[in-house]
Design a protein that fits this description.
By secondary structure, the protein is an alpha/beta fold. The chain has helices at about 35, 55-65, 80, 90-95, 125-130, 155-165, 205-220, 255-265; strands spanning about 5-10, 45, 70-75, 110-115, 135, 140, 145, 170-175, 185-190, 240-245.
Length: about 260
Amino acid sequence: MTQPGDIRIGIGGWTFEPWRGVFYPDTLKQKDELNYASRHLTAIEINGTYYSSFKPDSWRKWRDETPDGFVFTVKGSRFTTNRKVLAEAGESLERFHTQGLEELGDRLGPIFWQFAPTKKFDPEDFEGFLALLPKQLGGKPLRHAVEVRHDSFCTPDFPALLRKYGVANIYARHFTYPEIADVTADFVYARLQTGSDEVETAYPPKELDEWAGRLKTWAAGGQPEGLPTYAEPAKPAPRDVFAFIIHEGKVRAPAGAQALIERVK
């Protein structure tokens, strides 16, 4: 039998004061929070890169503080995605990719590009953007994913375009934005954003069981039932899966991610 892909589960960022005494022990020093988080989760989204760039020394430090097998995903710059003409983002993309990402080495996972809710699907312009995305960095392959938030992307043309360029569609479970669950690349990226801090593990046990089943289905190469898709299913093949619990309050996100990790072991 073909082995399923790896499933990595985590949260957005690692510096958040309300996690201290809840996720992080009271005695833990703030400088050791990434070290701690990376040993209790299997992935973390770096979201600060949406707002600003970082020096190579920062990227090396993050690599050195995390264990083998741990992966960061990196959020693309708002200066790249928040523009009228995406096909003109070449210079911005170069600045983003040359800030030091390669210093993460094998800790570097997918780069994800989030678009504003007002950004409508313009096939020609969006393809111009996808064509600009670099396929490698420092001789190593890059993976890209996109998160769109406008209903105009709910069309078969959108997943078809992503498949053409090998870019993953981010399945986002959100209260407001459309859900698109089409598999379009050799990996799957999911952002679970409807959790609650009133639940100890962000989601009730039954929902976590359901999500664990979906993640396993994706990793084995299938398409989970009941999620909205707009194109023909992708060819069955094992895929790596990246899933993040990121809800508004996010206090319980680490507990939810840990509970999900236990369920997919």
